[in-house]
Design goal:
- It holds the Pfam family Fer4_5.
- This is Cytochrome c oxidase accessory protein CcoG.
- By secondary structure, this protein is an alpha+beta fold.
- 40% of the residues lie in helices and 19% in strands.
- The protein contains 15 helices and 16 strands.
- The strands form five sheets. Strands 8, 9, 10, 12 and 14 form a five-stranded antiparallel sheet that branches. A four-stranded antiparallel sheet has the order 13-11-15-16, with no helix packed on it. A three-stranded antiparallel sheet has the order 3-4-5, with no helix packed on it.
- Strand 4 and strand 5 form a beta hairpin.
- Helix 2 runs antiparallel to helix 15 and helix 4 runs antiparallel to helix 6.
- The longest helix is centred in the middle third of the chain and has 26 residues.
- The chain is elongated, with a radius of gyration of 33 Å.
- It starts with 35 loop residues before the first helix and ends with a strand.
């Protein structure tokens, strides 16, 4: 049996970081950092936070603009009301969202995680409270490692009170998408809400407190499926937060006035600020890691250091693996185009479905006990049950009629009134002279016309049976 040598690639980092912002308690102590990307992240975070809190407060045509009314089985999204019969719209919307995420990830990496993910936004909010109450990262580390004192207990109590307050507000804001918002807040604080409301508000508050206050990056690295399958969407042209190894190595401290090139040093002064500001607790200089959320904190930290040293910025930057290896960077590629095309097609299908959604739905059920009968006048009579749903937010009056039938008698109301979201069950019968029936089974059409709006007509097909 011949022996063949297997070539093994050594992926061990050549330079181990001297500093990590992960304490002995496995807690990540994130240093505060300002810069272009951190300002962008902060503004986007506040925008989505305010949007999340404010959307349930808007009213539209007498009802809450966005309300997922589970009890009444309807979803209000501004002028659109979605019933269980229209849940395909939600499926299309989720598909559009999924392919939009695939497209953005293939092009810009995990920018969703760094700038728009609720886990990231709430984590940075909690870190902000932590910093304002307990101090900088070093002070927080010393406080946690120090003995229990009155000052420590006071700061911890204040911090956790702030966290719990934010968590309860978050739980209430989330429930406001399922329960009318003014009723929710009034009943909750006057202790008049139902047990289900209190359970779900406190449940989401507990999840927010645990995820953003304690678990933080553990959610991103161990529990979020996106962190696991993102590699399937990455390629060598995906924009990532990358460290320019060729420019930065060999790293090491030096004087600002020293000629570091003459000493064989790269541009990295090994200040470790890129590690101290990382919310995931990694060293970006070790290469691409799935824990990285592309928040750009290390870029801002490194750019400030480069500016102080009078070096060009961009030692750490948004780049691609090909650019780091001095290879051509392809912006347009088959995977990216494929995601974009599918996302566009799904978006068109969703828009067409929304535009063509009917404000009234009618189902016709024939009498199955007697397909037809002969009445006292000798006419053939068929009985139908019309199930009519008013899918608008207003009470509607409809006119009922039938087409594609010979002379007939109509037994039942010709005009009906249906409340918003109501399912009206209306039995009607049709009677036709047997001499006018040329076939044993004829196709007929029931027509609903909205009173005052002759331009809208809804038609549903059925059958009239005279012989088996």
């Amino acid at each position: 049996m011949s022996e063949e040598r297997i070539n093994i690639k050594d992926v061990t980092p050549k330079v181990k970081p001297k500093y990590t912002n992960v304490g002995a308690d496995n807690h990540i102590y994130v240093r505060n950092m300002t810069g272009v990307f951190q300002r962008l992240r902060k503004y986007m975070g506040w925008f989505f936070m305010v949007l999340f809190l404010a959307l349930p407060l808007f009213q539209w045509d007498g009802h809450q603009a966005i309300l997922l009314n589970i009890a009444e089985q309807r979803i209000h999204i501004f002028a659109l009301t979605i019933f269980p019969q229209d849940l395909m719209l939600l499926a299309l919307l989720l598909i559009v969202g999924a392919f939009a995420l695939f497209f953005i990830t293939a092009y810009l990496g995990r920018v969703w995680c760094g700038f728009m993910c609720p886990q990231t936004i709430w984590t940075f909010i909690f870190i902000w409270f932590e910093e304002k109450i307990e101090g900088s990262a070093n002070k927080r580390l010393k406080l946690n490692q120090g003995p229990v004192t009155t000052d420590k207990v006071k700061k911890k109590a204040l911090k956790h009170s702030a966290w719990l307050s934010v968590s309860v507000i978050t739980g209430l804001a989330f429930m406001a998408y399922f329960v009318p918002v003014f009723e929710l807040y009034t009943d909750f604080f006057t202790l008049q809400a139902s047990g289900n409301v209190y359970f779900w508000v406190l449940f989401f508050a507990f999840c927010t407190y645990g995820n953003a206050g304690w678990m933080r990056s553990i959610m991103c690295t161990h529990m979020c499926p996106y962190a696991r399958f993102q590699s399937a969407m990455f390629d060598t042209d995906t924009l990532i937060v990358g460290y320019d190894f060729n420019r930065g190595e060999s790293r090491g401290p030096r004087s600002r006035k020293a000629d570091h090139k003459a000493k064989g040093l790269g541009d990295c002064i090994d200040c470790n600020l890129c590690v101290q500001v990382c919310p995931a607790g990694i060293d970006i200089r070790d290469g691409l890691q799935y824990e990285c959320i592309n928040c750009g904190a290390c870029i801002d930290a490194c750019d400030q250091t480069m500016e102080r040293m009078n070096y060009p910025k961009g030692l750490i930057r948004y780049t691609s693996e090909n650019e780091l290896n001095n290879k051509p960077h392809e912006k347009s590629r088959f995977k990216l185009i494929g995601y974009g095309v599918i996302m566009t097609l799904m978006t068109i299908m969703f828009v067409v479905s929304v535009v063509s959604i009917s404000p009234v739905q009618m189902d016709i059920i024939r009498d199955r006990n007697a397909l037809y009968r002969e009445n006292s006048d000798g006419n053939i009579e068929n009985t139908y049950t019309l199930k009519i749903i008013n899918k608008t937010s207003f009470t509607q009056k409809y006119s009922l009629s039938v087409t594609d039938v010979p002379d007939h008698e109509w037994f039942g109301p010709r005009e009906i009134e249906v409340l918003p979201g109501e399912l009206l069950v209306q039995p009607v019968s049709l009677a036709i002279d047997p001499f006018d029936l040329k076939q044993p089974v004829i196709k007929i059409n029931f027509v609903i016309t909205e009173q005052g709006n002759d331009h809208y007509v809804f038609t549903q097909q059925s059958r009239f049976i005279s012989k088996l």
